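Hi everyone, sorry if this is the wrong subforum. Our group has a chain we'd like a structural model of before ordering constructs, and none of us has done structure prediction before. Sequence below.
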Amino acid sequence: MPADFFERHLVVTPAMVILRGHDMATTLLLCRAAYAQGVALIEVPWHGEESRKSLIAAVDWARPLAGVTVGAGTVVSREVLDEVAEIGARFTVAPGFHPEVAAASVERGLPHLPGVATGTEVGTALAAGFRWQKAFPASVLTPAWITALRAPFPGVRFVATGGIDAGNARSFLDAGARAVSFGSSFTPEALSALRN
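Answer:
Right subforum, don't worry. Here is the predicted structure as tokens:
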């Protein structure tokens, strides 16, 4: 189940890394840096053919390794789902909640992390079986949003995503997020904020 997957991978280091828009060499460099810092989930967003080489390289790099899994982000249609599943992505992420895509991903055996930004979206995704949800864009929603939504939805596990950096990551975790995602702000030093 998706909940079991994210729980298992985020329990030690409560962080994901999003490698968006990098060439293949840079993607692999950042994959290695994330893995060295104990990050278990790496997302490579899908933007058509320009992202194919980077996703393939990351998936192939992770395949023989223990403790790290590569998935695809921006999975917003069945067509994209088919593409990333064929490449070998092991989980999917979306900026919003697309019920048909989310269900199809799980049916394929790929845990899915849907994006949410309102109470209605949180409730709808939860009713569809998605306990782990991507709070996006987190920097706009703020840590207070996490605290407020956890009150009526105590069973939801939020991954704060969008605008997360070393300066605010801890505030989202302290507000009740179960994990954060670092995108362009990712550096090995950024993760130190989660360990202090």
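For your construct planning: Residues 2-194 form a domain with the TIM Barrel fold (CATH 3.20.20.70). The chain has one domain: 2-194.
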